[in-house]
Inverse folding.
């Protein structure tokens, strides 16, 4: 019997499924993609109903719309599991300061860096935050990103952090929602704001006693709660930001309000934050540039996904990158993300991140693709709904310009994506 569906994608030279029913991919499995040659996908409504050889799927289903993608590869929509896509202003002046020799942490300690963006974001209206973020999301979507995690942390006062969350809700809400799906993270512990200079613990009193309860209440009535998308709590565990104990205080307070944990850790300084992440059952630990071997082993033995952000190393002109090979060999579930932000990574492109990871971190193109799809989905706690092309999952897929997925990382400075399907709709 022939079934009627909304959409059939037929004859992909490579149908790259990234299917991993048993959870995030680790070790040798990170190099496996579950490719179906001459593949097809049947989609009904927002969901995938069948995946397999075109000969079988196209005989079993008829569709209102059929797209022949002969000459192209098809892969899952990319998932950007770490960004700061909502912000005002720019840091182009600091870009030049760094080229002249100042370091990222020196600029932060002098009241610039993140605090520069905090001043601009506090002044910006909600409408301005929404319209500038919308333009960035348009670019990310065209480059193949179909889900984006977004952090607060550029206001650092209760009203301003809620304004950043309101911008996310506006971009995700029913009227005029952006096709890119958002996942919100509260990052009140991003930096010590100027009015609390030298008094980080007093600032954290406000984060814990005022901001977190306000944010948890906001979430309860937000479009995210209605769609069962989690609200994460994050902290920047770093010299000049928050130490391990301070980070733990905030993250535990978030957990007590039902917020799963993410953490910025080991970007410049190893403060034991990976051990903390594992103790707290964090969904992800991000950056990991200077993580020590003991902590790599601890991460590998945990469910916490390691999110690497090599666009930051590239942008800061460093020659050191997170030890991705050692992590994969140890068994860490590795994901890659852009960290899109105006300071350390003004980069919307996951294909460029894959290109960097392959060249400077020794990832294979297949490992890089799993790291931007199924493992990134697990870094958001959404691995059962997005990140792979499997029956029952949301229909988020890319039609690539080339017949071979490796072009995603092979060419750079160009857009490898010909078409984007989000929730069953052709949106690019
Ligand atoms: O992930 N490291 C801390 N936070 C961001 C940078 C934010 C900024 O520089 O504005 C990061 O790199
Ligand atoms: Fe970040």
């Amino acid at each position: 019997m022939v079934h009627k569906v909304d959409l059939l994608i037929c004859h992909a030279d490579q149908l790259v499924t990234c299917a991993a029913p048993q959870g995030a991919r680790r070790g040798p499995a990170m190099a496996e993609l579950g490719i179906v040659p001459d593949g097809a996908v049947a989609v009904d409504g927002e969901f995938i109903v069948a995946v397999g050889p075109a000969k079988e799927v196209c005989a079993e289903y008829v569709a209102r719309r059929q797209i022949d993608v002969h000459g192209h590869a098809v892969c899952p929509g990319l998932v950007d599991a770490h960004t700061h896509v909502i912000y005002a202003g720019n840091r182009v002046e600091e870009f030049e300061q760094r080229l002249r020799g100042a370091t990222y942490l020196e600029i932060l300690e002098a009241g610039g860096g993140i605090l520069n963006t905090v001043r601009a974001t506090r002044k910006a209206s909600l409408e301005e935050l929404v319209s500038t973020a919308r333009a960035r999301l348009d670019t990310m979507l065209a480059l193949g990103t179909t889900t984006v995690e977004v952090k607060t942390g550029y206001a650092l006062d209760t009203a301003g952090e809620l304004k950043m969350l309101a911008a996310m809700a506006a971009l995700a809400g029913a009227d005029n929602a952006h096709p890119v799906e958002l996942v919100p993270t509260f990052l009140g512990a991003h930096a010590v704001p100027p009015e609390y200079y030298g008094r980080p613990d007093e600032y954290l009193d406000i984060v814990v006693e005022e901001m977190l309860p306000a944010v948890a209440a906001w979430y309860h009535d937000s479009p995210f709660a209605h769609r069962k998308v989690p609200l994460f709590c994050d902290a920047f565990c770093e010299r000049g930001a928050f130490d391990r104990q301070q980070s733990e205080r905030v993250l535990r307070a978030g957990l007590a309000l039902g917020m799963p944990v993410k953490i910025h850790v080991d970007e410049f300084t190893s403060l034991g934050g990976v051990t903390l992440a594992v103790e707290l059952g964090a969904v992800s630990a991000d950056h990991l540039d200077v993580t020590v071997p003991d902590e790599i082993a601890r991460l590998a033995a945990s469910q916490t996904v390691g999110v690497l952000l090599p666009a930051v190393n590239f942008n800061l002109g460093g020659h050191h990158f997170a030890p991705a090979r050692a992590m994969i060999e140890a068994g860490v579930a590795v994901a890659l993300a852009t960290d899109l932000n105006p300071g350390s990574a003004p980069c919307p492109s996951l294909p460029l991140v894959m290109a960097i990871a392959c060249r400077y971190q020794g990832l294979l193109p297949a490992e890089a693709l799993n790291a931007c799809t199924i493992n990134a989905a697990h870094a958001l706690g959404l691995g059962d709904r997005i990140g792979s092309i499997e029956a029952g999952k949301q229909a988020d897929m890319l039609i690539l310009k080339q017949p071979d997925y490796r072009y995603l990382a092979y060419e750079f400075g160009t857009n490898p994506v010909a078409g984007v399907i989000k929730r069953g709709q052709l949106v690019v």
Observations:
- The longest helix spans residues 200-220.
